[in-house]
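Observation: inputs received (chain + 4'-deoxy-4'-aminopyridoxal-5'-phosphate).
Thought: call the complex predictor directly.
Action: predict_structure
Action Input:
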Amino acid sequence: MAFDVNHIREQFPILKREVSGNPLVYLDNAATTQKPQAVIDAIVEFYTQCNSNVHRGAHQLSDEATRRYEEAREVVAAFINAPAKEEVIWTSGTTEGINIVAKGMAQQLQAGDEVLVTEMEHHANLVTWQQACKLSGATLKVVPIHDTGELNEQAFTELLSERTRILSMPHVSNALGTINPIQSLTAQAKAKGALVLIDGAQGVAHGDVDVQAIGCDFYAFSGHKLFGPTGIGVLWGRKEVLENWPVWLTGGEMIETVTYQDATWGALPNRLEAGTPNIAGAIGMAAAIKWFQALDVDAVKAHEQALLDYALELAKDIPGMRIVGNAPKKIGILSFVIEGAHPADIGFLLDRQGVAIRTGDHCAQPLMKRLGVPGTARASFSIYNTFEDVEALFKGLKKASMMLA
Ligand code: PMP
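Observation:
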């Protein structure tokens, strides 16, 4: 199937708008992606046709809402090749998924146990484990990276031991774009008896995720980075592990029996999903996945790689520009600094030209410190970006660097 970027763009209404009198050039996709009409329609249709609460109604609307909500779970399960739909837990996003695992783990960890993370963590996967270690007395070990932004695999092997209770690391770095060799690292960690959580926030929208092939115990991701709505995400976990996982939130939906003195928990997935869920969000996320699955994944990857290659070529013409993170295996993320120019000023001047990027520490303060930069400017590409978008970025950067540097 030929990859037709114009056909894709037509499906994203927001791409037709202007910013500062210029056509919008949206290059902040690692923060959140735009939504195709199919997703917007699915949410509007839910609220206009069958809005109701799920699982407890004795009426048609509730039955319809429940059916769509549970079908959405099946869509997610098939998308990540989960063996069972009960292993798909709806969350508010990656952050909540990681917290479910870390808060549960904190009850089981003790002094002498170790938790392994990497130097390239998003705060969601660093602070959460740091706090779990503080609570439990376990030790947080941080796997170093090379200056290229690749994980130091030798150091990883050395840090891994029988004391490692869990490895929690990103599939793809949000600040640098590095794609980590999660399959082989997971195998090594499992061989030592550790659990493995993969932070999939940046992994899902750029290729095919197969949780069984990865071999991990948990995989967490967000709908909004996958062309779906905000406020919805998924924690996938292996049934044997999730079945006994300490409950996170308590309340309605997640119980089996309740007395004034005590309560027992229901079966998966409900035991980890207390309260009224984000029904429209789940339906919208499933619509996004279906929309994405209709595309040719290899063509999507090739398109994003071509955009990155073009950007790297044009970067050579900007005096003082340095790419931060140049791992050979990376997604379409261009993190950079320009000598003499503050990233925030670059972002501001680009915005005046309609080009949306992100600047700052990208929720990875220790990583910025490790790399010796106060922050970076980050352009991140997605399916609907064009070569003209890349040219607009560099036209803007030329102007900005003349004014600032
Ligand atoms: N991990 C990574 C690698 C991310 O990029 C993000 C989002 N920037 C998160 C975790 C947190 O995701 P969310 O804010 O959707 O919970």
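Thought: report the result.
Final Answer: The chain has two domains: 5-31+296-404, 41-293. Residues 5-31+296-404 form a domain with the Aspartate Aminotransferase, domain 1 fold (CATH 3.90.1150.10).
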